[in-house]
Design brief:
Shape: elongated
Low-confidence stretches: none
Oligomer: single chain
Structural class: alpha+beta
Largest sheet: 5 strands, antiparallel
Number of strands: 13
Helix content: 55-70%
Number of helices: 13
Order of helices and strands: HHHEEHHHHEEEHHEHEEHEEHHEEE
Distance between the termini: 98 Å
Length: 434
């Protein structure tokens, strides 16, 4: 403040001195003009700097203004530093805001921010896909106008947000199950979170189906065995009849034993997600064992041929692979009518790997059943499967074994044309011949 007053007094003294000198030579009017002119110089300079400041403010380039002298130099320098600091703070806040937005966009959950009127203030791309909304179009729209599900509208109106809400048949294909919950925050704002629980719901459904199927599969042989046991205990049977009943009970017992063994095998395969070991396996030995097993199961009622067109060994877990190969061969024997042909082939594939093929001349499988054949307990013909002794788990085991060996199970079949089941192994699973 003192500096400003001193500068003003110096300027006033100079104007007075100049006016006095001119007054002595030219009179009052020139003297007044000179004094006024000297006092007007800083006003003109200030006006010039003000116009320049206005120009750079309109261009938003205050921090890039040229330097000035005197008091204006100080003012502009301080203003420039202030603007630079404020712009730096704004950029930091914007960068932080962008990081928050990126984090919300990266979230696997749908996020919608609502104001006190339940209008959409912001939402991420996942929420747009879940609910079929578009933020640029639907901003400031009431969310219950866009999500027209009665249960959601009741949930929003009741304001009972302690428990989540499950909404079915959402998404672009109406195949998603969403768990939605609203969380109040800040000044009467609300955060709506939507989680995709479709896979979880499917897993729960599969678990329920699995338990129901196991219970059903076990109940039938147990009922038969208990019926025969009750008959044997309460009725004095002839030795031949008693022997017949015991044989039937043994058949049902073996069926339950086979079911339990398959369940344990499948559980072990599902629990072990690591790739199988790479021990060299002689396919010649495996094919010989499969031939003996197929002949015993067939009882010479089928024409079974074995072709070994590849001398290289297979790298993998011998026990698991034999189980998978045996399941395919036994299925072919069970479902192929008498005098039918079954071919078991080990050959190379076009991609440098190899494939194990079981081809039968059975009745074939309709196309709608093919995608579901590897599901546990899925059967094309349930009654026929039970008659042949199948557990409904064979192809599920084959698929898991193939996955552990980086192989692919391919099923080709047409009604009346037979079926071909192929396990295609990559080249990494084939031991190259020296």
């Amino acid at each position: 403040m003192f500096s400003i007053i001193s500068r003003f007094l110096v300027l006033l003294a100079l104007a007075s001195a100049g006016s006095w000198m001119v007054y002595g030579q030219w009179g009052l009017v020139p003297s007044f003009a000179v004094g006024f002119g000297l006092l007007s110089i800083p006003l003109i300079y200030s006006y010039f700097n003000l116009k320049r400041l206005e120009k750079f403010i309109l261009l938003d380039r205050v921090e890039a203004m040229p330097s000035a002298s005197g008091l204006w130099g100080e003012v502009l320098s301080r203003l420039e530093r202030l603007v630079r600091t404020m712009k730096g703070q704004v950029r930091a806040i914007e960068a932080q805001h962008e990081r928050f937005i990126d984090a919300f966009q990266a979230s696997p959950n749908g996020i919608i921010m609502l104001d006190d009127q339940d209008q959409i203030e912001w939402c991420n791309a996942i929420a747009e896909r879940f609910f079929g909304i578009l933020f640029k179009r639907d901003a400031q729209q009431r969310v219950n106008y866009l999500i027209r599900r009665p249960e959601f509208i009741r949930y929003l109106n009741d304001r009972l947000f302690d428990e989540p809400l499950l909404i079915e048949q959402m998404g672009p294909s109406a195949n998603l199950s969403l768990m939605v919950q609203v969380f109040p925050f800040s000044e009467n704002r609300r955060l709506l979170l939507a989680q995709d629980v479709t896979d979880l719901r499917k897993a729960e459904a599969m678990r329920r189906d699995f338990v129901a199927n196991v219970s059903h599969e076990m109940r039938t042989p147990l009922t038969v065995m208990m019926g025969f046991l009750e008959t044997v205990q309460t009725i004095d049977l002839e030795p031949a009849k008693k022997e017949e009943y015991l044989d039937l009970m043994m058949v049902q017992g073996k069926r339950m034993k086979s079911l339990v063994e398959d369940l344990l095998t499948l559980a072990n395969l599902e629990a072990n997600a690591h790739p199988a070991i790479q021990s060299a396996i002689s396919m010649e030995t495996i094919l010989a064992l499969l031939k003996n097993e197929a002949d015993a199961l067939s009882g010479n009622k089928h024409v079974i041929s074995i072709e070994n067109n590849l001398q290289n060994a297979l790298l993998g877990d011998e026990r698991e692979l034999f189980s998978a190969f045996s399941n395919l061969v036994s299925n072919a024997v069970r479902y192929t009518p008498e005098d039918g042909k079954i071919q078991v082939i080990w050959r190379d594939s076009e991609d440098g790997g190899a494939e194990f093929v079981v081809h039968d001349s059975g009745p074939g499988i309709a196309p709608e059943h093919l995608p579901r054949l590897t599901e546990r307990f899925y059967r094309v013909d349930r009654s026929r499967s039970r008659e042949t002794g199948g557990t409904g788990l064979g192809l599920a085991i084959v698929k898991h074994v193939a996955t552990r060996h980086q192989a692919q199970l391919v099923i080709e079949s047409e009604p009346g044309e037979g079926s071909a089941f192929k396990i295609r192994f990559p080249s990494d699973r084939i031991a190259k011949a020296p």
